Amino acid sequence: MMLYKILPYTFKKAEKMNLVVEPSENPKYKLEIYDAVTGKFLFYGGSASYLDYPHYIETKGLSYANERRRLYRIRHAKEIAKVGSRGAVIAELLW
Prior knowledge:
Number of domains: 1
Number of strands: 3
Radius of gyration: 13 Å
Order of helices and strands: HEEEHHHH
Shape: globular
Number of helices: 5
Distance between the termini: 25 Å
Strand order of the largest sheet: 1-2-3
């Protein structure tokens, strides 16, 4: 099983949010997310089936990535609006 490659973009976002991210051992997800203070596991996040903003930048370029980000945010607007929710955290880390 190949683990997801976490890029610096996501590490920086996690640090700002006081979280720790690691590649997920669960093949359905990209990340395992932990509280940086307690070390407590919070949840898995990011479907392993899809690319995310930093990977789109790396593979397709910034303008394509920005369009994918815009569409992601439209599609997931209700989840993102719930501050502190799993969906909002994942959107912040990966998009």
